[in-house]
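Deliverable D5.2: sample structural annotation.
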Amino acid sequence: MYHFSVKCLSRSRGRRATAAAAYRAAQKIVDRRTGVIFDFSRKSGVVHAEILVPPGAPSWAKDRELLWNAVEQKETRVNSTVAREFEVAIPAELDEYQRRAFAVDFAREIVARHRCAVDLCLHEPSRRGHRKNYHAHILCTTRRLEREGFTEKTRELDVVKSGEVAWWRQRFAEIQNEHLRRAGHTKRVDHRTLRAQGILRAPTVHLGSAATNFERRTNLPSRRRLELDQKIEWENSRLESISKKPVPLDLDDEIVCGKRDLEKIQEACERNLIELPLEIESRECQTSSLEQAPEVLRLAQDPPDSSLEDEFDDDARADVPRF
């Protein structure tokens, strides 16, 4: 399973680095800037938590509460980005020691490349989640950490055109494949899109928190999951029929539908699928209310909107005491 995402925690959206760190590490942290106490010490599922810093960093940076309070104090603007998070899936094929070694190796490379402090928290699957959903939250400071403290911003991760995040997506796949090889597994992951891999198949779509919570409460498939399953089945059948379509020949019996034509078909299919998640997201709130409705489920005759979920733990995306 390959899952890799990078997101920013912004103060303008009500996010706090202290709250995020407390939740991900299942720890109690007092935000000294606001006086708010974030206590997640009762949270289970955190199998490893570790702070990694660049060489020569001050000793206080190894203390989670001191580190993230220093971050909050350094950022003075009301719309400051207080932290950046790498959220990644860890292969269930690896054992506990191997999963930890993989996550630590990846976190160390982030520290070495950007000279920032990193708070690594490794989570095991939740009791109600998928049994293979091992994942890591890598919370990074948005400033470089030197001997004298925090300095300049790591702007290279803010600019899409820099290609830095794309580079990390590839690097994460390489490190993961290396650890799988060391453990004696033949499975490999690929960070590229299906189109780049030459695979004519519908991509997956995240199920969403509303549908996931509904399924956990009822132990029944949600409306959205049924729509996703039907859509992916319909789309893959359509793509298969396109790939099996007889190849037209010209008068000289030369193949007209060659590699270029296949690429056009893939581009058309991908354009159709890329538009799909946007429509799904716009309907998410409406779908959430429908999950509570007593009406009999009615499946449309036309192919429904969406695809399959990536089965990532939605609880892992929270960082304030609202769960």
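Annotation notes: Confidence is low (pLDDT under 50) at residues 249-258, 273-323. Residues 259-282 form the longest helix (24 residues).
The annotation will be released with the project's public dataset once the embargo ends.
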